[in-house]
Design a protein that fits this description.
It holds the Pfam family Exo_endo_phos. This protein is α+β, with helices and mostly antiparallel strands and 256 residues long. Helices cover 27% and strands 27% of the residues. The protein has one domain: Endonuclease/exonuclease/phosphatase (Deoxyribonuclease I, Chain A).
Length: 256
Amino acid sequence: MKIVTYNVNGIKARIDRLVEYLTEADADIVCLQELKASDETFPLPAIEAAGYGAVWHGQKAWNGVAVLARGKTPVERLRGLPGEPEDEQSRYLECEVDGLVVASLYLPNGNPRPGPKFDYKLRWMERLRARADALLAEEVPAVLAGDYNVIANDDDTFSVRAMQDDALMQPESRAAYRRLLASGWTDSLRTRHPTGGVWTFWDYQAGAWARDAGFRIDHLLLSPPAADRLVDAGVDKEFRGREKASDHAPTWVSLR
């Protein structure tokens, strides 16, 4: 079973690229982030024509997450993270597909810092950890897949110096991510590529793609029952180089 996380950076603008990916990549479950589309404008017909069912949590012009499954519609479990009722940003969607719990998440960027956006990022990460703990207590195979906006290690970026002041690489962001791992979740891509140097994002600016100046912020975390089934993990980097592509590449894990 191949589970993918893919920040599409605007699903209406990238629908042709997404359909290409669904047609070519042989993915069973695809978690999307940064839809930048309302619920009403989600392009379900094109996704269904590619052979996938979908559940989505949209937001006009910003955020938005979805879970797609080949040949079926995922069963929704949770829409939005508990813990902050006034939070209306569409950043978390949890579904079940064939006994596997899959969450698509789009963690706040947190820039500029210090300030309210960074504070919100850290609060959101604590709410995510609370939900992750609840999933661990269920003892089910689960995958927390998405754009975490966290560069977890120095070797997860082309340049520590270039990113040192960014919210993605602050000690508080890293510590919150590591608390997730310490509670029992497995970073699947890191497990398969322990020496780093694997990027999932390349900025549109400053020729980042041509220079391979990227970093890793898209992660698929596995609960212990899912980690026991880990076969491989990687990045479908080639799709980042296509015309009008997202600035993220699809990132995946394969489970037995």
